[in-house]
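Homework help board

Subject: predicted structure for assignment chain

Our instructor gave us this sequence and asked us to write out the predicted structure in token form, then describe one feature. I got the tokens but I'm not sure how to describe them. Can anyone check?
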Amino acid sequence: MTVMGGAEATARSDAQREKRTAILSLLAGALVWGVIWYPYRILRDAGIDGVVALAITYGVAFVSGLFFFRRELASFSPSWTLLWLALASAGCNLGYVLATLNGEVVRVLLLFYLAPLWTVLLSHFLLGERLNRFGAFVISLSLAGAATMLWHPRIGLPVPQDAGDWFGLGAGFSFALLNVLSRRAQGVSIEIKSMATFAGAVLVGMALVLAGFAQPQMPDSPTIWLLLGLIGCVLLVVNLVVQYGLARVAANRAIVIMLSEVGFAALASWLLAGEVIGHREWVGGAMIVAASVFSAKMERIDCEA
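My token output:
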């Protein structure tokens, strides 16, 4: 009995350690995503289109992954889930970059974190999770927050006001879909899921360039190429870290942890870009943050039921 008790304590300790590591990995990802908009703005100011910058940086991450993950890629098996994972990643990353290039960073991120609304719905349809009254409350609170932020005194209707708003909303939906699909693909290694996310961003970015939606101007400065390569390496690491966390933390709880990105971005946008957000955005954002917190509580209630 003593041996079994010791084994159980060890297993419990290992599980707690893994959970703490997963939470720290999501916090690290939130920190990176809260500030990575700034180097993309530097690239934009240097004349590099956001779509082109995204395709190149994720191309660097993909090529690096081919070298570092060659052993794991030997077991690669294509699937529809991986395809949708790649497309969701492309929508999330492309939307995030374009949103932060075209709008106020904190406002964009608050709209991005309408993800609890999309996560509740997608978890219901794709993972079979129950949509109870608490879930309906989360949806209502998220929508109320969005309406508060998007309402315009002259227009009246709570609709996105510019490209940054639209990109932020689209990126948030794609992030929720990526979150849910990552949990659904439990049998797929983190390395393969990361490579799928890189490939999706590269292919969709290249398709947009070929379709004429972006200016295909290439950098002509070694410094800019160095910055592109550095961003690509950071993306490689942070995607691995975040995928590790997403695979071990429930979807709704992961959204709450990743909300720390708003705080990191608020500080970075104030220090680096001099951006200040208005009272209406903070009120609507508080509703959205509260909805995210309640979405995690909703999950705990479901688990206890």
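Reply (TA_rk): Your tokens look well-formed. For the description, you could write something like this. The chain has one domain: 25-304. That's the kind of observation they're looking for.
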